[in-house]
Design goal:
Elements: H1 2-16, H2 18-29, H3 34-62, H4 64-81, H5 87-99, H6 104-115, H7 118-149, H8 152-173, H9 193-196, H10 199-228, H11 235-255, H12 262-273, H13 282-293, H14 296-310, H15 316-344, H16 347-389
Helix pairs in contact: 1-6, 1-7, 1-8, 2-3, 2-7, 2-8, 3-4, 3-5, 3-15, 4-8, 6-7, 6-15, 7-8, 7-11, 7-14, 10-12, 10-14, 10-15, 10-16, 11-13, 11-14, 12-13, 12-14, 12-16, 14-15, 15-16
């Protein structure tokens, strides 16, 4: 597990920084606008969102090693060619690179589900969520500093090299993606999608979108609040406090004796985010961010844990790919939605919008899960009734 998390941290840090690296290259290397940089970032993100389930399905069928090696080679080809591509070609190439991004996060989550017992899994996924927070705190800032001090071309090459190194490292580790009692489950025993993509799984995916929508929107609201106060330079400090609080919350949650429902954690996260709009300077914003940040990693970890429990072994790759796609969609939606709210009102409206969006998805997830539970109870009741009135030797 230590080797898995260590190599995964390398790969995920580079993958987390890929959007920033492309943005800095377009702005500094091509001397184009931030809108043009946003276009490249959007195409890369769209490719990642669409490619998650497809790569997951390939992993279910072919195993992780082949998929990891092929995607690692394709990534280094893309990143080495970035400095010589014109902008129009770069847009299409970025989409293809996102579609075939090294599936470090889905493979790590599948391996955690396979390598841990039911009692260990929640703590392991809490560590995985803490790892995710570390990648966001380390990757993008390093890329920004290096691109400003050195060449954005070299930064793009380095990001590609690290993505490839992480993918090859995971392929060499070749972690088990199925527990010992699941090893015999092959494609022949693969359940149909409608059998596992039910209202419970959809509820978890909806809440995955809500969680990352809030996180993406909160980052934008922090910048808008500090810009209005004339304290933009303190934005990095506030984001760092949020990340440290999230790491702390993830570690504490992983040590708790009993888990909490995903909808409850997400609802509390949304509720704790709204009061940050009352802060008008960086010190109070740090306090408010710390309070909300304590719930971020625990919420992300419960989403991953729920997906691993609900997905049968034969489709776990596709399910974790859907989770990654849902979270990518949330990151893509959060900034525009909150940005519109800030432009229409005040920066505090951004926090309110992000918090209410999270609470709305938490409520939706709760209602979907409750509906699924009611359907299962009804099915069991009708089954027991049929058993009581049917002869024992009847084929029904």
């Amino acid at each position: 597990m230590a080797s898995l998390l260590g190599v995964s941290l390398l790969a995920r840090t580079a993958i987390t920084a890929d959007v920033t690296a492309l943005t800095m290259y377009v702005v500094l290397g091509l001397d184009m606008s931030y809108a043009a940089a946003g276009g490249v970032a959007a195409t890369l993100t769209a490719g990642i969102a669409l490619g998650g389930p497809l790569l997951g399905r390939l992993i279910d069928r072919r195993g992780p090693r082949t998929v990891l090696l092929v995607t690692a080679v394709l990534q280094i080809v893309f990143w080495l060619s970035v400095p010589v591509l014109p902008y129009g070609t770069l847009l299409g190439a970025a989409f293809a690179a996102g579609l075939l991004m090294v599936p470090a996060q889905p493979v790590t989550r599948q391996a955690i589900a396979a390598m841990t017992t039911a009692g260990q899994r929640r703590a392991a996924f809490a560590l995985e969520s803490v790892q995710g927070e570390l990648t966001y705190m380390v990757g993008p800032p390093i890329v920004i500093v290096c691109a400003a001090k050195a060449s954005p071309d070299v930064v793009a090459w380095c990001v590609g090299a690290l993505i490839m190194a992480g993918g090859v490292g995971l392929a060499l580790l070749d972690p088990p993606l199925r527990a010992e009692d699941e090893v015999g489950t092959g494609t022949a025993g693969r359940p149909r999608r409608r059998e596992w993509l039910d209202s419970r799984m959809i509820a978890v995916l909806v809440m995955a979108v809500g969680t990352t929508t809030l996180l993406s929107g909160t980052d934008l609201a922090i910048v808008a609040t500090l810009k209005e106060a004339g304290q933009t330079s303190w934005a990095a400090a506030v984001v760092a406090v949020y990340g440290i609080a999230s790491i702390t919350g993830g570690l504490v949650y992983g040590a708790l004796p009993r888990p909490l429902p995903t909808w409850l954690l997400l609802g509390l996260l949304g509720l704790a985010t709204i009061p940050a709009g009352l802060a008008h300077e960086w010190r109070w914003l740090c306090v408010a961010s710390a309070g909300a940040g304590l719930l971020a990693a625990p919420t992300l970890s419960t989403v991953a844990d729920a997906v691993s429990r609900l997905a049968p072994a034969g489709v776990r790759g596709e399910a974790t790919g859907l989770q990654s796609s849902a979270q990518s969609a949330g990151f893509a939606l959060g900034s525009p939605i909150v940005g519109i709210a800030i432009d229409a009102t005040v920066p505090a409206g951004g926090y309110a919008t992000a918090g209410l969006a999270a609470m709305a998805t938490a409520l939706t997830g709760y209602l979907l899960a409750r509906r699924s539970s009611a359907s299962r109870r009804e099915w069991r009741t009708s089954g027991e009734s049929r058993t009581a009135t049917t002869p024992a030797d009847s084929p029904t």
